């Protein structure tokens, strides 16, 4: 987890005066999903977002929402001639392993500290009261659910909630246009029927091959937990290159990254 001292670094440091966004950029701001690429701290260190972690922001109709890297969040915002104020964010309360949480907490602090923004060369910079960049985003391309190979980064093991995959293992999911979900559960290949209605999704109990794997250690237990978790899926959401499956109680089932994303 990120310490209070770490978050406390999100204060001002001197840079030249910046040219702020105008009304044309307001349209751009609200017309895309933005993916966090780096957080700039008061000690001048730039923290890039680790590979496989997606934190996003979508501005629309006075509400900004997205993924903090682990939890879903939403907050109100007002924008006027380059000035941007973001209200206190409400979010889900899931605990995720590092590095997701190391991204999420500084991002929430940066959103709260934002007073202006700038869009330049396809990048969105959130600025504090002195015009310093505290978070930088890029435009995130849209990805469809079906026909994409999704690679799991986090899944619900039924005990400790969301956990990262065992090092050296890989779990994939491909939602076919024929209503069949297939992929690798880490050792065995699996298939399951699925039905989508709006953002709701139902996944039937998967059928899998019966190979036994011993490497990496624990992969068979991970596989069993993942396949069991799939059957609890009730909703899905795609933010750019990231797919999120959740239960009817809004608990995380799994997070996936689009292959090559």
Which SSEs are present, and which pair or pack?
Layout: H1 4-7, H2 23-29, E1 33-40, E2 46-48, E3 56-60, E4 63-67, E5 72-80, E6 83-86, E7 90-91, H3 100-113, E8 116-120, E9 123-127, E10 133-139, E11 149-156, E12 162-164, E13 172-175, E14 180-184, E15 189-197, E16 200-203, E17 207-208, H4 219-230, E18 235-239, E19 242-246, E20 252-258
Antiparallel strand pairs: 1-2, 1-3, 1-10, 3-4, 4-5, 5-6, 5-7, 8-9, 9-10, 11-12, 11-13, 11-20, 13-14, 14-15, 15-16, 15-17, 18-19, 19-20
Q: Strand fraction band?
A: 35-45%
Q: Roughly what is the average pLDDT, rounded to an integer? A: 85
Order of helices and strands: HHEEEEEEEHEEEEEEEEEEHEEE
CATH topology of the largest domain, by name, is: Lipocalin
Give the strand tally: 20
Domains (count):
2
Shape-level CATH architecture of the largest domain: Beta Barrel
Low-confidence stretches: 1-24
Main sheet makeup: 10 strands, antiparallel
Radius of gyration: 20 Å
What global shape is seen? Answer: elongated
Helix content: 10-25%
Number of helices: 4
- Category by helix and strand content: mainly beta
CATH class type of the largest domain: Mainly Beta
How far is it from the N-terminal to the C-terminal residue, by CA? 26 Å
InterPro entries: DUF306_Meta_HslJ, HslJ-like_sf, Hsp_HslJ-like
Organism: Candidatus Contendobacter odensis Run_B_J11
Domain DUF306: 29-138, 165-255
Protein name: DUF306 domain-containing protein
């Amino acid at each position: 987890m990120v310490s209070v001292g770490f978050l406390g670094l999100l204060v001002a440091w001197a840079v030249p005066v910046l040219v702020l966004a105008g009304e044309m950029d307001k349209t751009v701001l609200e017309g895309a999903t933005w993916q966090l690429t780096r957080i700039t701290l008061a000690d001048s260190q730039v923290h890039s977002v680790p590979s496989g972690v997606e934190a996003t922001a979508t501005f629309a109709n006075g509400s900004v929402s997205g993924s903090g890297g682990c939890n879903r969040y939403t907050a109100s915002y007002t924008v006027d001639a380059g000035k941007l104020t973001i209200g206190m964010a409400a979010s889900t309360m899931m605990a995720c392993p590092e590095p997701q949480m190391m991204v999420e907490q500084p991002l929430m602090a940066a959103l709260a500290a934002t007073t202006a923004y700038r869009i330049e060369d396809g990048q969105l910079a959130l600025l504090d009261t002195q015009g310093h960049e505290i978070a930088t985003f890029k435009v995130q391309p849209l990805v469809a659910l079906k026909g994409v190979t999704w690679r799991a980064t986090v899944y619900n093991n039924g005990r400790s909630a969301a956990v990262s995959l065992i090092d050296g293992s890989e779990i994939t999911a491909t939602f076919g246009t024929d209503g069949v979900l297939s992929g690798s559960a880490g050792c065995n290949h699996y298939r399951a029927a699925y039905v989508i209605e709006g953002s709701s999704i139902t996944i039937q109990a998967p059928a899998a091959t019966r190979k036994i794997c011993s490497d990496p250690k624990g992969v068979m237990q991970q596989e069993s937990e993942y396949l069991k978790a799939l059957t609890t899926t009730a909703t899905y959401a795609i933010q750019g290159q990231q797919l999120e499956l959740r239960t009817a109680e809004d608990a995380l089932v799994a997070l996936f990254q689009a292959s090559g994303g």
